[in-house]
Automatic annotation (TrEMBL):
Annotated Basic and acidic residues bias: 220-231
GO MF annotation list: iron ion binding; iron-sulfur cluster binding
Protein name: Scaffold protein Nfu/NifU N-terminal domain-containing protein
One GO CC annotation: mitochondrial matrix
Span of domain Scaffold protein Nfu/NifU N-terminal: 17-106
Family, similarity comment: Belongs to the NifU family.
PANTHER family: IRON-SULFUR CLUSTER SCAFFOLD PROTEIN NFU-RELATED, NFU1 IRON-SULFUR CLUSTER SCAFFOLD HOMOLOG, MITOCHONDRIAL
Residue numbers spanned by region Disordered: 220-240
Phylogenetic lineage: Eukaryota, Fungi, Dikarya, Ascomycota, Saccharomycotina
Length: 240
């Protein structure tokens, strides 16, 4: 005869999660076809630390798992960025189990009401938008954003400089730290915006402060290695 606790565990309905790779090897997209993760269909919420996740009980619990770098919560998916030294073989089951327990328990909201009401989608139409800005937002929303979300990321509109024709955007989720993000930005987003909107001449990505620091440190390291290589003496000629 089963113990009562064992029976309750067996009777508990488990969600079926699917994981999908992204262009970023350190990011996985978790999808449950059975339930919505966030109540807002066209808005994602990204958290880079437990401090930023104070309005997301789900993200707070995820940050307690060692190795998680950032979390992005969408309507029907969740993207987890891990640290380089962590193996997905160990991390993926932990994330899946936590998601299953959190969403089936249904005791806490994924995103608090305060954050849902305070956060406005950057691509939403605004009465103060110029005609060009409205066109940029509509093109990103309908043609660019769906493809980026398929890859476990998202995109934020930041600004448009009419004098220089520069569109400022911010990539999120799997896309922001992906090695192919520059190709996505220039070869995909910039090319499409310039093709349909003649006033657009360039697209520039806005980075978080910590991302800017990391990029500068990487550039310094690359330059240091290059200088060391240039300073090394040439190899001796082969002996006859």
């Amino acid at each position: 005869m089963f113990h009562k606790t064992a029976l309750s565990r067996l009777s508990k309905r488990l969600l079926s999660f699917k994981t999908y790779p992204t262009p970023n090897q350190n990011a996985l997209k978790f999808v449950s076809p059975e339930c919505a993760i966030s109540p807002l269909e066209n808005k994602t919420f990204e958290f880079g630390s437990s401090l930023q996740a104070v309005h997301s009980p789900l993200a707070l619990k995820l940050f307690k798992i060692a190795g998680i770098k950032s979390v992005m919560i969408g309507h029907d998916f969740l993207t987890v960025n891990k640290q380089d030294h962590i193996n997905w073989a160990n991390l993926r089951p932990e994330v899946t189990e936590l998601l299953d327990e959190f969403l089936t328990a249904n005791k806490e909201p994924t995103i608090t009401k305060e954050l849902l009401e305070s956060e406005e989608d950057s691509l939403a139409a605004n009465e103060n938008d110029t005609e060009i800005v409205a066109m940029i937002k509509e093109l990103i929303e309908t043609r660019i954003r769906p493809a980026i979300q398929d890859d476990g990321g998202d995109i934020e509109y930041k600004a448009f400089d009419e004098e220089t024709g520069t569109v400022f955007l911010k990539l999120q989720g799997a896309c922001k730290s992906c090695s192919a993000s520059e190709d996505t930005l220039k070869g995909g987003i910039e090319a499409m915006l310039m093709h349909y909107i003649e006033e657009v001449r360039e697209v520039v990505q806005i980075l978080d402060p910590e991302e800017e620091i990391a990029n500068k440190e990487f550039e310094r390291l690359e330059q240091k290695l290059k200088d060391r290589k240039d300073a090394s003496p040439p190899p001796p000629p082969p002996s006859l």
